User: Which sequence fits this backbone?
């Protein structure tokens, strides 16, 4: 932490700040500038958030943090990208580009089986599908709940594809974990700390979506919540942030990929379906995500988007998905990756 | 809903859209424009979200909603502003400007009692204080939990001030409701739908904070979640939205007050402490909130901000709070309101 | 400037940075931290932007500026709020709340005269009206240009109200300055540096609007452009920033008022018409602006908004303006100000 | 346009709206809904902006535009992507991915010649370099002006690379056009309509950068300004938008590429240097831009970034640029494009 003093701070004010820094267990170090002094506080940076309270002291202009407040998620802790193992065949973060695909919601046995077969045929490695649905309106379809989980398990049995599905509260997390291979935390729950702690205690990989107005630093702090409970198998997912632009549902922030690769060892995937909200833009943004270095994609595919009970406009039809996967192969190769 | 067809859509494409609108239970009405056709879908607007899926159909340019999707929260349903009763003496939404004040977190018996006495003395009507704290970092202070609730109850007993405190997950909601007079839903949980449903089932007033990247329409949909479970006692709280500006912690959107007054009958209060993140800006923004028509304020006051375990920089000292309350009276009068 | 070194930077890398800091004319000062070193660069802060280039050096994590880069606009330079004198009777920044009002565009002699008489009658001190109009579409009305300026002069002659009007390029700035009492720089030109320099060379007060995505620091840098050419008579105008919220045309950032009061001595006014885009919200946001400490307002008033050639939806009718001004008086008094 | 009436609008209010629509030259068409009426206004959509003023009428809830307000820039006008020809060898918008590269500012003869030779050697087709620099601070380097233009011409002569450079005001536009092959309009001038009109009258291709808070629709309206003056040779450039995220200088909105490809026939390039502000992120975002369908890139390359007078941290060294270009070739091929 660097404490910047006001230009006209008094000696007494400076002394109070020095004293308080020492009380908090840090070693102060003063730099006398031409117009003002700045004070460095030396010691373990991670617990230094408490130093922020020095901003309330007389004579202090502001307090500037130097280090990032996450530790377990940090690239400094671990140099190689973590590979999150899902099954013997499927993992995320290695040479392979891992593709998760399927409908927004599980709607019926026929729909999810048809979807699972189609996405497998198209080249997906993991089946996605929501059983518990967080919807903006209380009057919208809220998911089939446990029945939906059972249908996902059936689709897995049939196709061999592991399953990723969303968990929306701590109370039903154990239930979801019985059925799912990956527990998804949605964007709206990305700072639901009670839920993050709960999935941190479970022994299943976690797919953590970035919140709509979450900085990359906050995103990593949410990953840190899961990891600090003992669960290291966290997969980060960029899915678009909220900006002033309305031509797309969200603004897909692909620069988050290289930024995250510098800051963390966790693998990063991209959701081009929620990121754009429009099936026309899913293929180009999938190619771009892989080119930017993503370790995988999560894509909405529905056999009949016009009759989908949620997210129809952003879902690909199976034939379009297959066509996209064929082109994606070329971009994966250009990136030195594979899609098998 | 208005379905806008592409300039070159075919007759067959239009017929398919008309057929689908009828299947969904609406009556289509075509307007033939000079360059393209638009189709109105007539029927109960509230369930029309499903019509959005028509965007997936061939020949459709886009689908434009006409009505707002909330009902119980709507000003159309109820013309007068709702008055939410807390105790025999205290309510929110009437002629009085209701002031909630206290520390960010309950830290100790001495701290919360001292705070309660000070804010009562300064003119507050309700005591605030967090027992369960949602913190961005897992390494920050997470609150005293049930012990904190007990201390709040003790402070209430001593001062007579009712208590507002945050509930952070469905599992502990009943516990919080045993102690609190108002259940606060924080900004990060504003779309935690499982939690919204849970507090909708309890019989305590709910203080719902706007999410950091929440549109006003989404804010009202979250209120609708609580209300649709049978709890009408919802108080909305504007607490700043996330923008590119970094001079303040958030950007306090005071125009949300008159916008909400047009759209909903629910009372609206403002949190200038989180809205600005800096105690220097709390008083002017409090005055502005009252001038813009707010029904109340929630303000962070701490006897010793420099040693606060959270949010020190944005907390007022008791003397400053009292000074602010005296000036606030003048603005309340200018607005035709009272602060007694 | 504080240069933060990487955790694993080598001694040679540090030496290179120290050498470069000295070459640029600053004195380096090293703080040895537990996990990394930080280096302070001591010397005149204003020219330090060049130090930002150290981010390109090996071993450097990032460079953190300590001071604000403006000087003439800074409150440190001048403790009292500057009073910008317009005429013998009218000035901005003193005890009085100064009101500028009138139509978005000058449309005809009858319209501007009628507007001028009405806003004077309502209590305005300055007449606004656009002769050169920057419009998003090339097919929209672009203003009456010099004819519009002449009509403004006629309205001034008749009512005695000084005139504020927009200047949109350096070529026509001298022409506008012949007629106008205050030169307005619009939000879209707030970083048109060629134009800022030009009005800095003229001897007329400048009303500088904040750009739609301009930070407060950039806003003050634009003021600094005008002032660095010798023109100190700058009035800042908050007019709403662009955010994700679409219920209002922009998000009026009233917290910019107290922030600016800390950082600069320049007077600050507010434009509630562009800030909200809706005449229903103009009165409450005007009251809030005054309560937050604004030195004045600029408000769109039109005798016939339904037939206005621009900005009809956000213009007040004269009767509504008069009604608002009467209530505004009460808020001005609460703020210890006057509106005479 | 669709005019949505309030639920309780009276017959007289509706009649007034119908009358006004007819007066403005449109044909009204009423749809009677269950809770409210909506009125379509049929006629040439382009001039309909004036209909927006109907929002001021009694009984009107809001006015919803159906069509986009641009015409010349629209994909409806012209189905194939426009190819903008620069020289006999170089054009933008065809099969080739066109690369513009060079320093932010022209600093000296040696620097620009060295840069030009290096970027040509690396595979660039066009040399970039600023002679007139729009800088946030009046105290920053403002460019070599005409001397810089002469040095660019010298570099062109030596290498054969055509030159793109920025024009910052109408007064110096003719001078820049004497030297430049492409006239660049910077992000801060993207709604400087006087400047847009001026370059629309010149007969040189225009590289138009998206403003920091510009919607895609506004971006196309700015292109329309240039085109409506007779200059069709417009190249659009996505360069990042301003959001809450601070880990990158801007948020590069790559989804703008497929969105623009649907809406306009103009070619689209990407600026990954300003888009990210950090040379580490330039290569991955360049690859992603090409994968998303961009027609070209504009990249900052400097022989000595640590001593650059502007934008050092985001500039590539020549060796890194060459390395990037070699990989870019693979992504271009995957996209069915070439980089020769």
Assistant:
């Amino acid at each position: 932490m660097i404490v910047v003093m006001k230009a006209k701070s008094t000696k007494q004010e400076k002394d109070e700040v020095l004293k308080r820094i020492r009380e908090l267990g840090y070693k102060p170090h003063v730099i006398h500038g031409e117009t003002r002094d700045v004070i460095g506080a030396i010691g373990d940076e991670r617990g230094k958030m408490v130093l922020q309270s020095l901003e309330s002291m007389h004579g202090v202009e502001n307090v500037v943090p130097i280090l990032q407040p996450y530790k377990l998620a940090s690239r400094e802790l671990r140099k190689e990208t973590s590979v999150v193992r899902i099954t013997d065949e499927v993992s995320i973060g290695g040479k392979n580009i891992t593709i998760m695909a399927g409908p927004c919601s599980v709607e019926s046995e026929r729909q999810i089986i048809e979807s699972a077969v189609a996405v497998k045929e198209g080249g997906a490695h993991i089946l996605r599908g929501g059983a518990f649905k967080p919807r903006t309106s209380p009057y919208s379809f809220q998911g089939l709940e446990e029945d939906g989980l059972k249908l996902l398990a059936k689709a897995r049995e049939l196709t061999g594809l592991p399953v990723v599905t969303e968990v929306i509260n701590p109370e039903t997390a154990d239930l979801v974990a019985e059925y799912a291979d990956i527990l998804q935390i949605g964007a709206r729950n990305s700072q639901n700390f009670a839920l993050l702690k709960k999935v941190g205690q479970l022994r299943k990989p976690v797919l953590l979506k970035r919140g709509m107005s979450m900085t990359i630093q906050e995103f990593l702090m949410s990953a840190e919540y899961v990891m600090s409970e003992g669960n290291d198998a966290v997969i980060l997912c960029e899915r678009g942030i909220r900006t002033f632009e309305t031509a797309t549902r969200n603004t897909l922030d692909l620069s988050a990929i290289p930024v995250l690769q510098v800051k963390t060892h966790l693998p990063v995937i991209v959701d081009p379906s929620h990121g754009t909200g429009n099936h026309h833009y899913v293929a180009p943004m999938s190619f771009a995500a892989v080119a930017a270095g993503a370790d995988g994609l999560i894509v909405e595919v529905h056999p009949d988007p016009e009759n989908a009970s949620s997210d129809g406009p952003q879902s690909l039809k199976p034939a379009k998905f297959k066509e996209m996967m064929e082109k994606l192969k070329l971009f994966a190769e250009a990136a030195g990756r594979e899609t098998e």
Q: What stands out?
A: Residues 84-334 of chain C form a domain with the TIM Barrel fold (CATH 3.20.20.70). The two ends of chain C are 47 Å apart (CA to CA).
